Amino acid sequence: MVTLRKRKPPTTINRAMSDKVIDQQPKEVFHYFDQITRIPRPSKKEEKMIAYLQDFAKEQGLECEVDHAGNVLIRKGATPGYEDRASIALQCHMDMVCEKDKDVDFNFETDAIQTYVEDGWVHARGTTLGADDGIGDAVCLAILASDSIEHGPIECLFTRDEETGLTGAMEMAPDFIDSKILINLDSEEEGEICIGCSGGKDTVAELEYERTYAYPELHYARIEVRGLHGGHSGSEIDKGYANAVKLLARLLFRLGNEVEYVLASIEGGNLDNAIPREAHAVIGVAPEDRDALAAFVNVFRTHLQDEYKVMEPGLKVELDTVETPDYCIDTDTANDLIFALIACPHGVIEMSREIEGLVQTSTNLASVKMQNEDEEDALMVVTSQRSSIDSQIDMVGDMVRATFESIGADVYEHSPYPGWEPNTDSQILQIACESYRTLYDTDPKVYAIHAGLECGLFRQKRPELDMISVGPTMLYVHSPAERLEVASVGKFWDYILDILKRAPEAGK
Q1: What are phi and psi of 303, to 5 degrees?
Q2: Measured between alpha carbons, how far is 115 from 124 in angstroms, rounded to an integer?
Q3: Which of 115, 228, 396, 463 is the most buried (most CB within 10 A)?
């Protein structure tokens, strides 16, 4: 078991493992990345990061502005000889996905991320690393702090709440930035240039239930599915990783054919943009069915582990005896929920016919939770749909809506965001491609992504914006396995600096 001690995030901390991060090259970038890992910055709770950015700008003598949504903009003038260049906005988001392993004691609102370097990769101990998009933040700060980097006028835009609704970008005024060129620093593969992204929305179902008596003479057990990969529900939806909520629903559906049981609770998943890694349920069976329950779970576990032996080698299905719960979910609602979770679509719906290998449309069964609000007990199921075609976002949302409305659930949609249509004639794209060829003697990969980027919202507000998205190499973002390749950060750093030197003349 990994246990992290809770600690306050002071300005400086002596951490042996973070010293190793600081020692990586380029030091100016990893210096700021290390500082950022010490600052709690969950989505919608970025106040400490905002204050840090304001203090940084003040110390550097730079102009800083915070808008009504909490977005931070820091401006820096051109270096000598570059005064005639077009202004470029470097954009990243300040929040991070907060996921941790079940057995890790960690509070994302107070604790510093525990980083370490292994085999050329930066990791976190038992939690998400926050390189998405902390490394983009660090690159911006390193550029702003330097007195030797050559560049025209730059604006560094740090947006709020990208991970849980894109609300910072959504609420940003069109004239908050002056630049007509924007480089988003939120991509996850060095050597690739993203020029388009999907749009999407969330579809949420709420199903009321009645509390029923939990008979103490029953045998109660907790069934848990865990050890899954999880990952980003956009960029990794096509990888074939298992969904813990779907696996648990499969188990409970089949179990009903073997023994009669009551459902006391069910929980699984966390964020709408992450594939669920863990899910559990508490059920009650007659004492004489205890052995049959154990036998069924053992067989089902074997089947799942064989089914996912390649993609999910860590898959576990565990059965443990628990105390009698306070109440159970009424049988009709429990059955309806399990049926709907089985029927609810998840995964890739359609691949693009225009761009080889690109997922066009998908949906993620993100979570199922129990809640009590206004004296009403309800089960909440959150799903998210993505597509590069707006009509297919609605199509898949309707599939989810029909599934849950058929069992009497209330279904609503929220957090819609637009896509970003690729522009292969982009001026900044041509500059970025030329820069990469010059630096590394090879062509970068130019692609569109099946995930939401803030660029779609920026384009909606400012149609004239010329944009690309780039970044270093990261793996397993939005999960505790998240890691950042050190060597790719160095290449990314050199690449961004070279692009800035190649900025076009203003007005051209």
Answers
A1: -65, -45
A2: 4
A3: 115
Judge contact between 275 and 236, C-beta under 8 A.
yes
pLDDT along the chain (508 residues), means of 10: 32 43 96 98 97 98 98 98 97 96 94 96 97 97 97 98 91 96 96 94 96 97 96 91 98 96 97 93 98 98 97 97 97 98 97 86 97 84 93 96 98 90 92 98 93 90 95 93 97 98 90
- Determine the Cα–Cα distance for residues 252 and 294; give it in Å rounded to an integer: 13
pTM: 0.73
Cβ neighbours of residue 456 closer than 8 Å, sequence gap 6 or more: 197, 199, 417, 418, 419, 420
Q: Are 341 and 268 in contact (CB under 8 A)?
A: no
Asked if 62 and 147 count as a contact pair (C-beta separation under 8 A), the reply is no
Report the catalytic residues: 95, 162
Tokens 């939990």 found at: 214
Residue position matching structure tokens 């980083």: 115
230 Cβ contact partners less than 8 Å away, ≥ 6 residues apart:
99, 241, 274, 275, 276, 277, 476, 478, 479, 481
- Say which amino acid occupies 335: N
Expressed in angstroms, the distance from the first to the final Cα of the chain is 58
Cβ-based neighbours of 373, under 8 Å, separated by 6 or more: none
Q: What is d(CA 439, CA 445) in angstroms, rounded to the nearest whole number?
A: 14
Residue 431, by phi and psi: left (phi above 0), alpha (psi -120 to 50) or beta? Answer: alpha
Is the alpha carbon torsion for 476, 478, 480, 484 positive or negative?
positive
Single-letter residue type at 480: P
Taken in order 301, 480, 474, 462, the sign of the CA dihedral is positive
Q: Tell which phi-psi region holds residue 77, choosing left (phi > 0), alpha (psi between -120 and 50) or beta.
A: beta
- Please choose, from the candidates 341, 312, 178, 381, the residue with its C-alpha nearest in 3D space to the C-alpha of residue 254: 341
Element (H, E) at 284: strand 279-285
Task: Name the one residue in this structure whose structure tokens are 């609300």.
Answer: 167
Element spanning 65, H or E? strand 63-66
**Contact (Cβ atoms closer than 8 angstroms) between residue 388 and residue 196:** yes
Pairing of strands 445-449, 192-197: parallel
On whether the CB atoms of residues 234 and 198 are closer than 8 A, the answer is yes
